[in-house]
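Intended use. Records like the one below are meant for learning the mapping from a protein sequence to its folded structure. Do not use them to infer anything beyond what is encoded.
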Amino acid sequence: MSSGVRNNAPHPGGPRLLADIGGTNARFALELAPGELTEIRDYVCDDYAGVAEVILAYLASVESSASAAGLPPVCHAAIAIANPIEGDEVRMTNRPWHFSIEATRRALRFETLLVVNDFTALAMALPYLNSKQLRQVGGGAARPNGVLGLLGPGTGVGVSGLIPAGDRWIALGSEGGHATFAPADEREADILRHAWKRFPHVSFERLAAGPGMTLIYQALAERSGEPAEDIDTAEIVARAKRGKDALCAETVDCFCGILGTLAGNVAVTLGAIGGVYIGGGVVPKLGPLFERSSFRKRFEAKGRFEGYLAKIPTFVITAEYPAFLGTSAILAEQLGTHAVGAGALIDRLHRLRDSLSPAEQRVAELALKQPRALLAEPVAEIARHARVSQPTVIRFCRSLGCQGLSDFKLKLASALTGTLPVRHGQVHLGDGAAEFSAKVLDNTVSSILQVREHLDADTVDAAVTMLDEARRIEFYGLGNSGLIAEDAHYKFFRFGMQTIAYGDPYLQSASAAMLTPDDVVVAISASGRSADLNRTVDLALARGARVIALTARHSPLAKKATLVLPNDHVEALDSHLSMISRILHLVMIDVLAVGVSIRRAVPGAETAGEGALDWLRHGGPPEAADNVPQRRHG
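Structure written out for the chain above:
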């Protein structure tokens, strides 16, 4: 478990760009080594058209000083942004900016661009905060390796936690601020009744966030019969600090008590014996008012669990740049400096290069100089470019802790993109040629990689065996799938096998009625819900024939088939072409064809399925695919 102590050696890949982008301001820094920040600057978001533009402005502003210091260009960057991050497309909720993460990475020429939720970044900062960046408010000592809780009262209330997992932390995604508010006394019951006049559901966020202080003020004024002035949260806090407005002072104390109840709920729900931390923009501004408030008393007020909660410390985060700390930690983990077995490889390649053999160092140089080109090359081409043998390439991959070339490429892609290379970028009206071309290609590549990661070698091997031993193979598909069936017929016909493809449901039914137990049907359907195709498969099964289905995993066709090679890609509902599903089915036909080719070239081979999967692992079929061995069965 990381204790928060970080290695302060300079980053081998050069300075890293860290950003904290909100609705109003964007703050940037260069990180030269873990925790060593320089060139911290703020920008007003209204002055720029989008994320890429404000980043370019920052990079331009620090270019001369970075060059004078002998720093290389930025290759790795991470952005904490006040927005949910659910895919490649990011649309900010509090300003009219939207962007593609991958397109932005390419435009800025970064090797890595991570975009994370700002509250996730704050959560990941917790293990790296020191005593000078925290103010403890009650409780005992934090338990080492314990779960950490986090609340962030601001415009809303963020709730999260950090779960220890070996030598790293896992941030917990949560919407705990929307849990239903429960009053703890008559005063809060009156506040709840007042809030019900405006909201059908009153969550903790309605009262424990910054705007909630105004609602509490209005409710308490109504309760006491006093006139409520039209003042905002900042004025309520200012008056409470001056000590001359009893209603404002009561409002702040009530706010802190409600926050204490929520914090106690988080503590007992998560078992946060490592402490509960309070971030956000509201509490740090309260100063001594918060420490004197009912927060801690209400935190512990859990009846039989008062003793349990009394031991748990609560901290106010006072660090000036906490989001940078968390963003740095997330980027470091992504680049492999925290978790050797799961992360990217760029920094690891720099660190381990000198310890590799001379031949392996040539592969490392190739990976560092031309990483994106390497991703597309099979092992033979990588060996040729690096002037080494193919076994040396595999040894190189294993020296880095990878299982083989496939695993190395996957982790390298993760380093280059900042995420696992499985993403979907929606094509929009108005996209230029560069944008829609990249999205179509990225979507296809990502889908193939996803199939590769979930494909079962045993199922492939069983399918290859079934096809190799078949007396006759019939390929059935309707519409676009009929074209795939024709392609499959052509490939297997070249092996001298008895094959036929039918794209008409009547011909399919007629032929299926004459099959024998020695025959195999390959049924191809993106949805697996075609009534005609399913009736034909029923006829084939009734005749004793075996059926291999290329279809969605839980579809009606999959439930009938003898073997299923699943394709769970979901096409856009407004598209008339099953573009990616069609390509995935064509790829799977190629996998089966290569497997049968290997099986027939080496009679008695028992790992044809594994050989076929090399098609996916190495980026394409063998170079001699156009001259595959042809042997007439029997």
